Amino acid sequence: MSTAIVWLRQDLRLADNPALYHACKTCANVILIFIDDPLPGSVSRLGAASQVWLHHSLQALDASLQAAGNRLTLRQGSALPVLQALLAETGATHVYWNRVYDPASLARDKQIKEILKQSCTVHSFNASLLNEPWEVLKADGTPYKVFTPFWKAMLKHGIQHLPLPAPEQIPAPTSFPRSLALNELGLLPRTHWDTGMMAHWPAGETAAMQKLLDFLPLGGADYKNARNFPAQHGTAQLSPHLHFGEISPRQAVYHTEAFLAEHPAAESGLRHFIQEIGWREFAWYLLYHFPHTVDQALDERFKHFPWAEDYVENLEHWRRGQTGYPIIDAGMRELWQTGWMHNRVRMIVASLLTKNLLIPWQEGENWFRDTLVDADLASNVLGWQWTAGCGADAAPYFRIFNPILQSQKFDPEGEYIRRWVPELRARDNKQIHLPRELGDGLTDYPLPIVDFKASRERALAMFEQIKGPFARSTVQ
């Protein structure tokens, strides 16, 4: 009888899983494996917060598989020899996987496919994007670098795809191969700091779909506006579920369109929600076509940007949420405690780090990758380069977010700040947005680590060194 190995990575779900679906259609036996691969780009090589999420996601997936009469096999080691050993052990005739698009994994997977197809059938599929990165190009065959024309081309190409159902049966082998216990992967920390973080999150496919279905009627209509206010529950918070493939973007779009068909009043908000899924798509599209942007600026002129060199102390204050700017400190503490940060606040904290402190964007990207449960490589890189002004879709002037103005506009009652910066809770709604030097005589909250106005002017001057005088600059 034919046996298929399904190699799972960032597709930890049963529904809309092409590799699993086709394996079940083709073969009499199906073995599902997750490999804790030492490759730097591997999902198991992510930061500490994401590894915690991965542990719980694998646990949820195994429970779903056992309910369907199968189970998850766990192994450690380089993917190729692990797969070769499993082929020899089981006599499998087919290997299926869903593609991942980071540069390291693409190179590895290409090599694995070339070697394995000499002895068995190998198929790979798209399970994590609306369309393949090579399917949407400009008329001259080159990739887009600006989101709006990219998204228009995507919509023209088509983003609505009928998700595949979960297999009716996942046929199990007569005997399962040897598997590590989940705890043997060492994804959980020894100090148990993760308990508080995961109290904010349910992981797994069922939780992901429920979160989407709850969001559509409760927050969909007002999403375009509410998503800017960090104290509100105005976002879907699907990003970690999308990152680990507990839900696919095709499922998200499909269910959103189905909801819109019956609730047209939610059109404005949910079209914006779908567009945000498009930004995730754009991030992976750029990383595929410009793989050097993993750690280098897309804008080559930034090779000459005079970043700060002695910044260890300022970086540590920023990481700990001790900058003296309330909205920024609230965001950094939210990140540390929950593994997540509101998107608008991500832009504000990134702006201070790169523009006012002149700390290289890679430092912030590395910290986010280690502390975010949704540490999606492509989206993280895109966001940091966008804010630093060195990536795709950057405006022709230096965006600088004023943390005081942003706080006053998007947290007017100080609710978000009070939630995460308890030493400021006694301040009134006017003073709570202000650094200590502009507020009351509080002494248990730090003074600003940098003068915003002076550091803004310094940044603009340095920006001109590499880009020349520019027509306008803004403070947002």
From TrEMBL:
InterPro entries assigned: Crypto/Photolyase_FAD-like_sf, Crypto/Photolyase_N_sf, Cryptochr/Photolyase_FAD-bd, Cryptochrome/DNA_photolyase_1, DNA_photolyase_1_CS_C, DNA_photolyase_N, Rossmann-like_a/b/a_fold
The enzyme's E.C. designation: 4.1.99.3
Binding site for FAD: 223, 235-239, 273, 374-376
Domain Photolyase/cryptochrome alpha/beta, first and last residues per copy: 2-130
GO function term, MF aspect, one: FAD binding
UniProt keyword terms in alphabetical order: Chromophore, FAD, Flavoprotein, Lyase
GO biological process: one example: photoreactive repair
Cofactor: how bound: Binds 1 FAD per subunit.
Top-rank lineage group of the source organism: Bacteria
Record-annotated site: Electron transfer via tryptophanyl radical: 307, 361, 384
Cofactors: (6R)-5,10-methylene-5,6,7,8-tetrahydrofolate; FAD
Catalytic activity: cyclobutadipyrimidine (in DNA) = 2 pyrimidine residues (in DNA)
Annotated function: Involved in repair of UV radiation-induced DNA damage. Catalyzes the light-dependent monomerization (300-600 nm) of cyclobutyl pyrimidine dimers (in cis-syn configuration), which are formed between adjacent bases on the same DNA strand upon exposure to ultraviolet radiation.
Alphabetized PANTHER family for the sequence: CRYPTOCHROME, CRYPTOCHROME CIRCADIAN CLOCK 5 ISOFORM X1
Family: Belongs to the DNA photolyase family. Belongs to the DNA photolyase class-1 family.
Name of the molecule in the record: Deoxyribodipyrimidine photo-lyase
Species the sequence originates in: Thiothrix nivea (strain ATCC 35100 / DSM 5205 / JP2)
